[in-house]
Design goal:
By secondary structure, the chain is mostly helical. It has 19 helices and two strands. It has a two-stranded antiparallel sheet. It is globular, with a radius of gyration of 21 Å.
Length: about 450
């Protein structure tokens, strides 16, 4: 009952904060890009809060429980991608967005390559964003199931309702300020929970004695985890629409470099935390029915009630902040890329804002529906990260740094990347071939087709 009361009070506080801040949001520009006013501090907190979500808490701990040390590459790859975003891609995207009043990644693709590329990618991004939102809701339902025995389906509905309410109030501005609170709870929770959980199982000596598999302590590959996550997650964190749209809200390039750079450094420092918590769960609960229960079980049964409650609040915060990032990406893309671009080009700012809020409610419902049928957090996120890497990475970098690139090169790269992944998935079940993952094959195909079409085109369009 203590844990339930704590999570309910925390949830109500976030809704109240979101609604209060949302009163300042008057236009679609405020909702989409926070008036392009975010400084390094707010950008750092909203980026890191979005990045420490279901995959990097419940998911990464589950991988640490199952596969060992090599699970560090799940969050480590996100850190490497974030450094690239901070120093190169992010500032360039912000300048382009500010100069041409771009509000979504779809806006960038139309500005750079034309409406055909925008339309092709928008549908893909909507589908992918739903999987990210679903992954966060699955994690929320896992926490609620362990804490109060709430059925997973009911947990998904509760999580979807909470996120939709406070996000709908004010979009990026609301998310940025609520993320400050969520990030504070996360950092405090994990900083206190990790050493206490470690001491309660006998210290590092007890953890280091684990040897469930021969490669459990390999830093490069253990089980299904390893350095190959870099091919899936690294590019995805460079071109993630949700992260780029947060960067659109930055006030200048310095805010991007500092805010996103500190986010990347924090991810690198944090990467081992969920992995070690997963290993601690392996010592304490060696026969869990599902490795996805590793983190909630440690926090609920491996710590004093007060510390465990703070840790659970930290995990809950992680899932909520990442979920609102996914909802932001999905909602803004639908309202800007579909409604304002094709349905009502002459719509006023207030009309767009109204449609955006309605879309947020519908998108939240879709996320709940997918969460009810998705297999796991990692499954849902892997689908999204793979699609995003192979479809966005080459066109975004080409659009920024290859002035001669046109729609043919972009569409060719998108088609080649997705077709390669789909073929690998259906023909080989997504298995690695000679160490090459579907994401690696898709990225390679996209780059080769992009460069080939660029060379074959003798004159500019």
């Amino acid at each position: 009952m203590y844990y339930l009361i704590l999570l309910l009070a925390y949830s109500l506080a976030q809704i109240a904060l979101g609604v209060w801040i949302g009163r300042r949001v008057r236009t679609a520009s405020d909702f989409f890009v926070a008036g392009r006013s975010l400084g390094p501090g707010l950008l750092f907190s909203t980026m890191l809060a979005a990045n420490i979500g279901a995959g990097s808490t419940v998911g990464a701990a589950a991988l640490g429980y199952r596969d060992g040390l090599s699970a560090v590459w799940w969050v480590g790859s996100a850190a490497i991608g974030s450094f690239v975003l901070a120093l190169w891609v992010g500032p360039a995207m912000r300048r382009t967005a500010a100069a041409h009043d771009l509000r979504t990644v779809g806006d960038f693709f139309e500005f750079r390559f034309g409406v055909g590329v925008r339309t092709s990618l928008s549908a893909l991004l909507w589908a992918g964003s739903i999987f990210v939102l679903a992954a966060q809701l699955i994690a929320i339902s896992t926490v609620l199931n362990v804490v109060v025995g709430l059925p997973p389906s009911a947990g998904c509905v509760v999580g979807g309702f909470l996120i939709t309410v406070y996000f709908t109030a004010g979009g990026l501005l609301t998310s940025a300020w609520v993320n400050v609170v969520q990030l504070t709870v996360k950092l405090m929770g994990f900083a206190i929970a990790l050493p206490l959980a470690l001491s309660r199982v006998g210290g590092w000596a007890a953890v280091s004695s684990l040897q469930p598999t021969g490669d459990y302590w390999s830093p490069w590959r253990g089980g299904e985890s390893g350095v190959l996550y870099l091919a899936v997650l690294g590019p995805a964190f460079v071109v993630s629409p949700g992260l780029i749209q947060k960067i659109y809200g930055a006030r200048d390039d310095r805010a991007v470099r500092l805010g996103v750079g500190l986010n990347a450094l924090s991810l690198a420092l944090y990467a081992m935390v969920p992995v070690v918590l997963g290993m601690i769960a392996r010592v304490r609960f060696p026969d869990l029915a599902s490795h996805q229960l590793a983190l909630p079980m440690v926090l609920l049964h491996g710590l004093p009630a007060v510390v465990g409650g703070l840790g659970l609040a930290a995990v809950f915060s992680a899932e909520l902040s990442a979920a609102d990032a996914a909802l932001f990406m999905l909602t803004t893309s639908l309202s800007q890329d579909l409604y304002r671009r094709f349905v009502a080009p002459g719509a006023s700012e207030l009309q767009v804002l109204r449609v955006t809020r309605i879309t947020a409610v519908v998108a939240g419902g879709l996320g709940v529906a997918v969460a009810l049928v998705a297999a796991s957090v990692i499954t849902a996120l892997s689908i999204f990260y793979t699609l995003m890497s192979v479809s966005l990475f080459v066109p975004i970098l080409g659009g920024l740094y290859v002035p001669r690139a046109r729609s043919r090169e972009a569409l060719g790269a998108i088609g080649a990347g997705i077709a390669t992944v789909v073929l690998r998935q259906f023909a080989f079940g997504g298995a690695r071939l000679h160490g090459v993952t579907p994401a690696m094959a898709g990225l390679t195909a996209a780059a080769v087709v992009f460069l080939t079409l660029l060379v074959l085109r003798r004159t500019p369009d």
